[in-house]
Amino acid sequence: MRGHSVGVRTIAGRIAADVAQAGRRPVLVGLTGGHAVGKGRVAACLTAGLVELGCRVALVGAAPWRRPLLRFRGPDAVERYHREAVRWEALFDTLVTPLQQAGSITRRVRLLEASRDHWYMHGYDFREVEVILLVGIFLLRRDLRWRYDSAWWVEDSPDAALRRAIRRSRAERNPDAIVADYQRLFFPAHRLHLEAEDPVAAADGVLLPAGESSPMLRCTGMAN
User: Fold this and answer.
1) How far apart are CA 187 and CA 183, in angstroms?
2) What is the total count of domains within the chain?
């Protein structure tokens, strides 16, 4: 059962406690939810809270590790997008797992600018990290949940998510094209994720991007 609402500072405190228990090993925290629900804003707030508590944070977005949208066409596009949207093996094997093991990493990788399906080179340089905050869609698939020390779900309405997507991408894409992608692929894949894997129940809590500025948590009773 979901309980009372608490602020991001409280969640940061729980993660900081995990850091203290983990010793020299960085803790891996998943922050997930549907497309354009405000994960980035929540991640920024959470990162700031962790930094205030003295934690060294590596903020890693899964979005640049996605595959081009053009590959997801045809009658099975939704199922394949749910399964293959993110290059999970490359993300974990190339970046996340080595960073967990060593606490530091310097690596140059090929990533995707999803809004334009444009590949580019990017350099990661993290030093003496204590928290890896991984942000992206579908993080709470059953085959991935075991990886995280804690995982948090960001929730917002489909209408609010679509408005946010249009607002942030209007300069790069036609709003009609954005709506079409959400209706054809993103929303159906999100529903499939909810129905097939119940990620909300698998999360340690649900963060609500209240007013776009002060995310709140409804505890699920599963927090460590």
Assistant:
1) 6
2) 1
